[in-house]
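The methods section describes the discrete structure representation at length, but only in general terms. Each protein is reduced to its one-letter sequence and a matching series of backbone shape codes. I believe one specimen quoted in the main text would settle the matter. An entry of this sort, consisting of the sequence and the corresponding backbone structure tokens, reads as follows.
***
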Amino acid sequence: MKAIVQDAYGPADVLKFRDIEKPSPGAADVLLRVRAAGLDMGVWHMMTGIPYLMRPAIGLRAPRSRPGTDVAGVVEEVGAGVTRFRPGDRVFGTCGGGAFAEYACAREDRLAPIPDGLGFEPAAAVPTSAMTALQALRDQARVRAGQRVLVIGAGLGLVMGYIVHAFDIQPFIVTLAGMFLARGLCYTIGTDSIPINDPTFTAFAQARIDLFADMWISPSVIVAVVVVLVAAYVLHYTRLGRAVYATGGSEQSALLMGLPVGRTKIAVYTISGFCSALGGVLLSFYMLSGYGLHAVGMELDAIAAVVIGGTLLTGGSGFLLGTVLGVLVLGLIQTIISFEGTLSSWWTKIFIGMLLFVFILLQRLFSARSRR
């Protein structure tokens, strides 16, 4: 049979296409005729042998198993002890290696039937990625039944990112429609303000972290700081962050450089949706209620904070800490107007609008000067 093999660690050049012997299933094994195989970061680690500390376990000079673990195909033959499958069944799962071949062997307990309507290609992409997502949500984030807010936010962001990328629609139009959709879904729960009486939620919302000189902060501040630090690290020290800057600066140039522009855009919208949902949770801590009219117009405050913080509306330039500074400037303006006492709260919107207008003009001037 035809198969992809490797005799040494290294880049993709070490992968070779050869004729090898067809595997025979053991008593608890299933022989598959491979229709699709999945790619994930594990395949890259096995191919390159990086990090080096894993080589004693997988092979010092070359991996002991052939590349590829995620597989989908049709059952060709079953071992004597296999009871769940029979020849002709469509299955997917993981094998011990060698998925990049015409045939592959996998243990019975590592396979599952492919659901009706799901093709071989998407099924092969599920096993490792799905288990990674499951561990992140269930074991690390400890998401439990009923805790759907952050997942829904990230899901809406992912859908909007896919629409923007796949159909080349203006992002402002797509996100505006998504905002109306999300706000409308809130009204399906209730048209009036709903108080939150859960003891755990209320205790967290009312908790105080003492600092010094009778100063204190709420746990929400800690959550916000952690999000800022993680986001700053991702933007400046990871492959995704560099791809975000490159895509924002020039999508066409990023494509020519071989960067995954589509995947990057969808990831950005997914993260944005997650952060929006997290912001809604933090606002609920502050309000101790849920209402469809909460935070109306706050999307413009978010845009103003980003622009005031120095991020170019044309993309490709900006710093997260600058956005934090923009948030602090807006908060300072609101505080000054509130403590002044004689001005209406609407003056906050007037000052923010004027400030935003000035910063947009400055961005245009600096951009025009830099092009010269």
User: Anything to note?
Assistant: The longest strand covers residues 29-37. The chain is about 55% helix and 15% strand.
